[in-house]
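Co-fold these.
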Amino acid sequence: MTVEERSPMQFEGIRPPHIHMGFSKDELMLKTFLMLSIIAIGSSIIMGINALIHILTALGTVFVIHTLIISFQKWKKKPVSYDSYTSTLVAGMIVGLAMPIAGPFYITAAVALVTVLVFKFGQNWLFIRKYINPAAGAKTVLLGLLSIMLFWEESLSIGQLFHPHHLDLNLWTAEGFEASMWIFQRVTIFGRDLSATASLLFWQTHGWIGGACGILVLIVGSIAVVWLRYKWRIVGSALLTMIGLAVVFGLIVRDDILLRISFHVFTGSFIFMVFFMATEPQSTPLPEISQIIFGVALAVITFFLQLLNVLGGSIFALVLLNLATPFLDKIGFRKPYGFKSKKQRRSLR
Amino acid sequence: MKSFKEKGRFEITLGIKESVAEKPVKIVPPAEIMSVYLKQHLGVPTQPQVQIGDSVKFGQILGDLEENQKVYAAVHSPVNGKVIDITTQKNPFSNKVEQIIKIQTEDAKTNQVFEKLNPETASKEDLLNRVKKAGIVGLGGATYPTHLKLGTPNRITNLIINAKESDPNTSSDYRLMVEKPDEVLKGIQVMAKILNVHDIIVATRTKEGMTPHLDAILQEHGIRVVRMRPNYSIGSEKLLIKEILGYEVPQGHYPPEIGIVVHNIATVYAVYEAVYEGLPLVSRGITFYSEQTGGENLWVRIGTPIEHIFNFLNISPTIFEKTIMGSIFMGPSLESLNIPIEKGTTAITGFSKDRSKPYADEIPCIRCNYCNIVCPVDIYPQLIMEATKKENVTLLKKLHVEVCIDCGLCSYVCPSLIKFTPYLLKGKKLIKT
Ligand code: SF4
Ligand code: SF4
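Predicted complex below.
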């Protein structure tokens, strides 16, 4: 009997590798959700029940929309875009944390709806990938539209991008800047009045929900960057650039440098956005140098938008840079093995 | 050590190695019918030197070529027997149908085939010629003919012996270090004489005290032992050089061109056997492992069908859904069990159903960047995949797909369970055309 006759077992030829690390997209999303939940708890303690309602509104909305979409897809026997809810819940959480505490709840629900419907499922359906961060895209489009409805009396305060309160601020001079800090000087905890700097670092009752405690975002964000391997170059370059700009500008106009840094870096719209929106995998570049360009540009644009009183302007900057990502993906490559500098090469014999 | 970490802190578990490494080597007797491929090396196939019906002796040449053909290595009969067929069969390593000689085994006897050489008195040419006649190839899996590497016209200043055994499913090199230390030293000395090199390094992932005898005799002979961090990726020749000597081999060039030669420790042992014992390369050490059965270190003759090894180990192959030949990162999975052990086979691993297709549920890329972070040669597998899909040759060239060493780490870490191999292969092909 030949070996062939004695070996009836046939296996399928499967290409290598044959083992996998075992870390799935769902695990990545769940861990991101966990990190965001810590910030949500902190923000709800600082900003109160309204913060929690915003967050739950966003989460509830994305859950319902996701369920409706996949039920529709199943009913129509179409391929289901996202089987798992994990990334949708992360998007919902980000929407909740990226809304200003002063905004109406229905706006949060509307942003959450647009996030999932248009910028998550819609982008995926049209382009098979997300070019724009869903929450940032939804916020920019919706709040931008609301803001320009000038025929509507409340348009600016509902749109919240150019809030009427902000339009009077003058951040270009030392005096104007100091006078503008009244928003952060109204905080009293445990019977003590916090300085504007302390409030920006620890206890903001104004602005984006996710940035209520700047230090908490910094700590949780840093843990997430290391633990979940977020694109740290974006975070690092954006933070360093923002600090650098704040210092230089502070020196030029001669005001309180620490307060300048705290304001530009720790306002919720920047610190939260940098850690949890600017690192969104799909809409940000892959090559290392491009990530640095992305981070630097993000900080520069945000800084000048802040000076122009568009205090949530980081979101514009992010959308703009998201759109530049396909181009940034074609530049900024590191040198591969065998192409490194002469120093690392031994001469050929 | 339970696991080791790759670039980006990605972890690879060493459960397999741990469970097998301390088991002594068992010798597998030859099978009733042995199957020997005529091409078991990098290069051109050899031509059959026997005919159906011929009687063959242990160590007799089965496949060879004219001298002027450059890259090849002769193949020899692993048994005394009779040629019953010269046919073709798919070779899992090349994924091509290749010529194979089937031999009915008459007995399992072995004998000295070549005259023993004394390396002290033998000339470099004689030693090199012996390595060539013995059909030795790189036994770490690369299978480049060893006589060509040793016969390099370049001036060599460093000889690195790769005893790092990076794959998580192999431990046969470690067994050589434990069980054959004196032979290993002699093999290194032969290589050093041929290359006329004095700076010799043995690169190992073993800890101090794990191979005391080998460590002692190496030290006695002025051979450095470099204990390395136990990454999987730095087992590759080029990365090993960078890790130890700090040099990169310029792209498009080979290590000898910068004065460095790297040989696997199993190849060293084969050189010892060829020179001191007069034996051609007809057997090698492998590691078998499956979760259900545990593992063994085995000494097998080249040409032994996998099915015979299962029989020897009293294992029913039906318990496996998939059987891998070689590295679980880079080796092929077998379509049939009549595939024989080749010179480049380092291991056999059986996978049960629940672990046989870890990449079955692939989803679209989420651009997490993990694959790019882990890539040991600093290219961008994700961008290469995209460029390959679009057949964008200009971008593929810019991304230097040709630098890829096929380590499989990008797939290993991908949370979307994407298997990059087809894209990388196609990308490499595209830039060539
Ligand atoms: S690891 Fe997978 S999911 Fe992540 S970027 Fe690479 S291909 Fe995409
Ligand atoms: S297989 Fe190639 S592209 Fe993937 S990690 Fe290894 S070297 Fe990099």
